[in-house]
């Protein structure tokens, strides 16, 4: 029988960026907060001498154990879904700090177009531009309304950046200057300018200089060691929750962190959450944590899973189009080109996770879509992130994938290649959604989340367009041999692509189409808040963290107001 604990003001399910922000802001206002994290605790000391590609990048030391909990996957509703048995298309993080520990640090703001995508599309192109099967909806908030929260998140992280010429209006410059230019980023900048494009340095959570944030937490200057994605930062130079918002919460005395605490159910009565039930994964004991406010701050997929398992909110029904929990699941499309240089070498083995040159000319509605049969676009980046030898063996077309010639060319071209990658936006489709698997369960007896997802005609047309732009760009950089990506086929759960999963609990201003309002408060349970990329009504061409952080600060403000006033927030 579960042991019931003392009631608190706020309980968060997950303690990464969103859980840390909610905890810090609420605790500073005097609210009692308990943070439940199903993984273990972490700190900078855990990352000393972490430069082990095999352990962290290949064997996924910081990731979820998919033998205990995973998802099932299928491309189409008529297929049988099967469990994902190995990390592949995306990486499920686990432990204190969540994906904020092993992220690259790229911290874009979504465009003003993104938040009013349906309205702006119709205004410019008319109703006929909307495609059948695509769920296009506004977010219930504008960029200008969200801008102060973007600003707060960037100041918390000390983001190093250069203003995006296509970005929304900023109230302040980035807290720290952009990262160092390198021969690679300079070459990319020159190529962009030669093509009439407007390059800018990637906004980075790998800091260009030592920085003290408004809460008094210090983030150090990046060492350009190249061990960012899939690794924690031993220098404390990559902004992450364990060196920013979590210490801030702990210093208030109003926050209690519990690790190894796996929440398996949201408890509720008459539409009001009463708390959560969790399992201590070390002892196997069950606990009930009552709370006045329950906040889901776990990864995209788990936020949706918990609502479905707990029967809180209306599940999306593909057959009749009703419901919203599990709806609007989106991913991204990746288009790229690689260039090989016979007579030049580059320090490709050095760098940082968010070191790079970006072009935004083909993102959002930054270009005229009148004569193309798709919407949105993608950001292009020539990254100088640092490549490592196990997972990076680029070779020109026609090279065998094993044997003597492969080894020789792998060594030769390791420092003789550059490329550009485009992250393309993903728009929600009637056949792409999340629900509970009817067959498979996790190690705790809870049904697995089932993902039904495939690329759409919209995705394929966008991918083709971005591939052409990528090839053009790499040629302009002066490569001797240029390769471009293959045509986009069916989505595959196995090869890694990006961990930018979004949707499942979409936000909006219509309770029939959205799970939460613009404070991320559930329409159907006013004391339950769902915070994260699961709230995105679609996925942009950017990395999601900057927008996730802004929404978390907005939600924190709402939770504090709700704790004082109650009722639905407006």
TrEMBL record:
Boundaries of every Glucose-methanol-choline oxidoreductase N-terminal domain copy: 143-331
Annotated stretches, region: Disordered: 161-181
InterPro entries linked: FAD/NAD-bd_sf, GMC_OxRdtase_N, GMC_OxRtase_C
Pfam families the record matches: GMC_oxred_C (PF05199), GMC_oxred_N (PF00732)
Domain Glucose-methanol-choline oxidoreductase C-terminal, residue spans: 428-552
Domain of life, per lineage: Bacteria
Keyword Translocase in record: no
Keywords: FAD, Flavoprotein, Oxidoreductase
Protein family: Belongs to the GMC oxidoreductase family.
Protein name: GMC family oxidoreductase
